[in-house]
């Protein structure tokens, strides 16, 4: 956890908050095999007086902040600036379809006036083994507990930020959970010239694009399509290539007899 130097700021401002969000995002990056996950869930704690003073413009600050965070991620993904590890180019991405930002008043006398404390996570539910980034504007230790952050986020979670389902699995990068936030996702090893939404870090028995999941926006039900050379299994039954098949709300997806993905719909 890194701290910035003390700034002589008598009052907190929207620009200071946005600058601190970007710094927090940079500190919370999680490198994986073929991509780098960027924090996208931010809980912002302000002194009660500052929170009240900014209450009428918080939505405008959130809007500007989302644009600034997206611009920073686009800058990282710009031509010639992709992160490299050896010969592998890694794309910066978020695990949800948008950034989530919420303001909270500090009611425990932990955040001084003109200061801000920010807690971030990679997704709406914490990633296994990932503790998130916690930063402050002034040079002090973050003092809001993680239990309080989780409670506040649970209270203020919005339907628009809904996660439609999740996929739990373990590959060469360790145990992971992927949150489905869009109506179609592609799954496979991916590559420099082939984007997949869920990159699996494993052997080449898994195709670069191995399988697709689609969600019916009206019914909320999912279907699966095998796109691979070495096969996909749904609850132990091998699928025919390029044939769309319904997926139960809870299912095990076998990928090339190499990985098993535990799929579950979020109601």
Q: What would you say this structure looks like, in words?
A:
- With 267 residues, the protein is of the alpha+beta class.
- The protein folds into two domains: 14-160, hypothetical protein PF0899 fold; 165-265, Tumour Suppressor Smad4, CATH 2.60.200.20.
- The protein is built from four helices and 19 strands.
- It has helices at 14-27, 48-53, 58-76, 146-156; strands spanning 30-31, 35-37, 41-46, 83-85, 88-93, 100-105, 116-121, 133-136, 165-171, 174-180, 184-188, 198-199, 211-215, 222-226, 232-234, 237-238, 244-247, 250-255, 259-265.
- Strands 10-9-19-18-15-16 form a six-stranded antiparallel β-sheet, with no helix packed on it. The protein has a five-stranded mixed β-sheet with strand order 12-11-13-14-17, with no helix packed on it. The protein has a four-stranded mixed β-sheet with strand order 1-2-5-4.
- A hairpin with a 2-residue loop joins strand 15 (232-234) and strand 16 (237-238).
- Helix 1 runs parallel beside helix 3 (58-76).
